[in-house]
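Quick entry, no commentary yet.
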Amino acid sequence: MVQHRAAEGGGLVFGPLVVVFDVVAERVGRGALRQGRALGETLAKSAQTDALGANVESANQWAYFQARTIRGTVLKTAGEQIALEPNASPEAVKKQIEEWAKTMARWDSDPASGDGRKELAAKAKAAEAKRDLSLARYHHYELGSAAFQIGIVLASAQVITGIAALAFAGGALGIAGIGMLAVGLFAPHAIHLF
């Protein structure tokens, strides 16, 4: 094949230069595709890790929210029950119910500590938004990485077959891979894939 390319390249003087240029271009092209694939896979793994972490954070916040709700319901029920006690002092009952009402109000909203139900719901929703963003990025990075991988295969096939169209197709897939990485990085919700 090398002799065939040298013969096509213009004889003894330019033939070896054509072969050298062809080999260098092919190796540089495949190297660039490999670097793009490595970048895409690294970004995808990072986005996947971020999505998993945000999902765990969201689940933790919602669990804490639910625990606050259950504790508030228990106190409310206890307040209703103590008010129905026949032998209880009305003043003691009123005082206890007021204390529990303050506690329930603090559990409902506590901006100082950030542990009220309203604050917990806001934290959980923020973690869900981060998870969704990371998953959108992940899918774009994975598709970009796949485009680079297929481009590498086509560029390798071009070396074996000598069909220039395969090299161009591999390069086009490399450009598509760069595009998918850019979409994932800058506008992951612009194209809805999954």
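second:
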Amino acid sequence: MTAESSLRDIDLAHLAMAPALPAVLPGAAYVDSASADAVRLHLDNVVPALESLRSQSGRLAAWGVELAQRMLRGQRLLAAGNGGSAAEAQHLTAELVGRFDGERVPFSAISLHAETSAMTAIANDYGYDDVFARQVRAHGRSGDVLVLLSTSGKSPNLLRAAEAASRLNITTWALTGAGPNPLAGACDEAVMIDALNANAQEGHLIALHAVCRAFDLEVARHSPAVLQQGGRP
């Protein structure tokens, strides 16, 4: 028996000794009051995140417009984050390479954490703090945009990526939790969501969709046929 299977057996034994939930009618679900209260509190805490975003809607719109103008000129978006923020960054690049709402041409956008072989090689050879900075140096060009996502705003690998970008004349934008924080200070511009970390992260997805909304509108202004026909600019 392996150590892993032994640990699994111990976990299952503990679960077997847990008190059984009360019987419920078919189609119904038992929810204790503490769980229901926790869910309601979480949902209530989304409101401050939305209010924080609404107060910065002008910046989000400006990001969408500027990003569209740059990408129509052939610039590229790079994005990075850790954990859940990595998933959000990849969501953004998927919207640009694929599409958001309307049909349009694809634009060049790369999630640095999604390049797993390069990322693990860099982490192995140089350390995890350099996994994004080295890729910024490899892929970034003057005039590109780097979007960095972090609820804490303290991730060393994102801070190093921002530093590398500044040396290459790459514009840096940060989406973070409550500020002030180091990443917001290290980037050219930041949207800081004044909310609990989980709710701030949920707000990041809303912020990214808002940027995409302004992005598509700006692309349509400059090249409406691109959106309607899916042709190249």
